[in-house]
User: Which sequence fits this backbone?
């Protein structure tokens, strides 16, 4: 059977499963629409969090980016996992004890201020929109390849599916569907990785295989071979970076802190039964995430070797176009791989210098990896199903946050408190619709690769929520004036920097023009520091926090007396 | 107030902060320390086919993160019990 038939079968089967679960768990009350009625087991919650978390960026784009940038890719690996340590140690148990629905709920109550709540709502919507746009792009990449359509058409198909899917269910539907999606996506990611690892290094564990020797009898370490090839072809050394150390540091920090500040991740920890469970849930989530995150760099290295070998041939002379590898011809149809015969010899050649004739989009690497390693067609199709699972589970989680923010935080708790439950549900669904359309538009006109778009969302989360929540828990005397000023300073600064370099003056987006050598991807860290500084400074010169708020802060610091998981 | 007195509450909180502080120090060391700041000297050492700094950035840090969270869970559960503030 060909790839397309397999794709239809596997994608069809997994979709039937998700829809089945969504229908079975159809949300009834508003409480269940938002947070699954509170009774989710920590292991299931961990899996759902992992699926929610591992987006199209993690699944499709990350290994591809690492494949191109080698060591520098560590920013994503460490950044997107290290945040869970912050979450588990500094946020999750306290927010669970606090026991409300959303991040703006916490900000609004802790800072006893409607303004603070509104600022937080605005930040949550802004962050989630940026993030969901990256997902739509990822869905588009998958559909464009497997349905052999243009990428924009792929995005539109993806919009329709996400739309049906997220607007129908709510958190409860989503939680169990996400457990299924985690299983699909991790299976889909691991099978080709294990096969490839066996073929290339003889070791079935990809994490070990990529530090092993190449199975061609030469006894050469895979990474040494890759460094050798890179040097010969004019690429950067794979195991060394090309980004400055400052930038690597700041990007990693922005991603870590951003992870801990993402509203759709934090909301997960409101759904477990106890404070104890909130702590362990973060641990389970990270284990499930780490399986993919420690495999991704192996996939990246394998794909890199295969990519170079299959285009340049064993003697590095380039393969004739009529014998082009099938992955090249397949992906040329989507426009994501291009070959231009610059020297007119009829052979393809891939390098990092003037000899290069290939233009390869980073987002295709994972999806093309089974073809790169000549694995059977069903494995290729399996990856398509996995990529869609990753993109859909994240998109659904984000849309939920957007609709919660609009319906619950903005309308019910803000502008229109006399809403009925029915109206609130309707508002939630309508805002999900609006979000899908806006996200689709941004997916068609993205400012960068999937993982980069997503990276900005982290910068924004890092510079807005994280300091406000941390100060809210660990600094009793932090008052509303400080928190509001800090959040505004952080998000305005970060947005301005990103917009300046990415949209207004993209030609100036070079290390010489960056402040302290920090790229727009890493600027969220500086925004976070600014947020802390402004908040503490303003706090010093304004009125003290009321006594009852300080007592509330004391009470969230120990588990005893936590209410049942919210179910309103 | 769930504690017997104000002093107990203070001690619980300071022990909590100490556990957090130690674990966060390790968190910082394996990622920002070994994976970024010290990557060049560590890359002189090899671990099988890996350069050590590169391994920390792409593998080691992540394994450590997982262990840190589980250690935290165990430590905090013990602490909650000791001060009788578990649920």
Assistant:
């Amino acid at each position: 059977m060909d790839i397309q038939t397999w794709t239809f079968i596997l994608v069809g089967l997994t979709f039937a499963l998700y829809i089945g679960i969504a229908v079975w768990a159809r949300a009834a009350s508003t409480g269940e629409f938002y947070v699954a009625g509170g009774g989710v087991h920590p292991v299931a919650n961990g899996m759902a969090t992992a699926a929610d978390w591992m987006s199209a960026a993690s699944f499709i784009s990350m290994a591809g980016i690492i494949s191109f940038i080698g060591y520098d890719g560590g920013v994503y690996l460490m950044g997107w996992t290290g945040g869970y340590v912050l979450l588990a140690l500094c946020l999750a148990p306290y927010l669970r004890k606090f026991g409300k629905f959303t991040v703006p709920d916490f900000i609004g109550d802790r800072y006893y201020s409607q303004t603070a709540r509104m600022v937080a709502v605005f930040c949550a919507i802004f962050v989630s929109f940026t993030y969901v746009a990256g997902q739509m792009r990822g869905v588009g990449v998958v559909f464009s390849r497997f349905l052999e359509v243009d990428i924009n058409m792929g995005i539109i198909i993806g919009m329709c599916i996400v739309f049906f899917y997220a607007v129908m269910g709510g958190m409860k539907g989503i939680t169990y569907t996400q457990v299924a999606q985690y299983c699909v996506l991790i299976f889909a990611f691991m099978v080709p990785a294990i096969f490839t690892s066996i073929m290339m290094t003889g070791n079935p564990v990809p994490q070990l295989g990529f530090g092993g020797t190449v199975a061609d009898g030469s006894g050469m370490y895979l990474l040494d071979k890759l460094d050798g090839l890179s040097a010969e072809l004019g690429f950067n050394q794979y195991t060394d970076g090309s980004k400055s150390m400052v930038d690597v540091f700041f990007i990693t920090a922005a991603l870590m802190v951003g992870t801990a500040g993402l509203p759709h991740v934090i909301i997960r920890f409101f759904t477990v039964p106890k404070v104890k469970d909130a702590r362990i849930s973060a641990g389970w989530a990270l284990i499930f995430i780490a399986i993919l995150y420690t495999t991704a760099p192996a996939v990246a290295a394998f794909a890199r070797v295969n990519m170079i070998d299959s285009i340049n041939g064993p003697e590095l002379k380039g393969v004739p176009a009529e014998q082009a590898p099938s992955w090249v011809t397949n992906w040329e149809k989507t426009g994501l791989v291009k070959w231009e015969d610059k020297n007119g010899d009829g052979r393809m050649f891939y390098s990092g210098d003037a000899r290069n004739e290939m233009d390869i989009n980073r987002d295709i690497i994972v999806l093309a990896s089974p073809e790169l390693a000549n694995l059977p067609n069903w494995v290729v199709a399996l990856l398509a199903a996995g990529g869609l699972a990753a993109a859909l589970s994240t998109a659904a989680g984000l849309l939920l946050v957007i609709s919660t923010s609009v319906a619950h935080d903005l309308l019910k708790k803000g502008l229109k408190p006399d809403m009925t439950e029915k109206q609130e549900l309707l508002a939630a669904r309508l805002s999900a619709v609006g979000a899908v359309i806006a996200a689709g538009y941004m997916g068609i006109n993205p400012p960068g690769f999937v993982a980069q778009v997503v990276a900005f969302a982290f910068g924004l989360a890092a510079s807005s929520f994280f300091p406000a929540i941390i100060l809210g828990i660990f600094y009793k005397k932090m008052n509303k004036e400080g928190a509001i000023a800090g959040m505004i300073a952080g998000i305005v600064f970060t947005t301005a920097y990103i917009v300046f370099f990415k949209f207004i003056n993209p030609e100036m987006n070079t290390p010489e023009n960056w402040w302290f050598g920090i790229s727009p991807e890493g600027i969220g860290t500086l925004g976070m520091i600014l947020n802390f500084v402004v908040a503490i400074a303003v706090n010093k010169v304004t009125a003290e926090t009321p006594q009852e708020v300080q007592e509330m802060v004391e009470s969230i610091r120990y588990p005893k007396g936590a209410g049942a998981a919210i179910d309103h | 107030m769930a504690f017997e007195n104000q002093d107990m509450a203070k001690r619980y909180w300071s022990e909590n902060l100490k556990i957090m502080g130690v674990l966060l120090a390790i968190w910082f060391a394996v990622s920002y320390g070994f994976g970024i700041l010290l990557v060049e000297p560590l890359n002189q050492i090899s671990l099988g086919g890996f350069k050590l700094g590169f391994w920390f950035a792409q593998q080691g840090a992540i394994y450590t993160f997982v262990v840190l969270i589980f250690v935290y869970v165990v430590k905090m559960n013990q602490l909650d019990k000791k001060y009788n503030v578990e649920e």
Observations:
- The two ends of chain A are 51 Å apart (CA to CA).
- The longest strand of chain A covers residues 337-339.
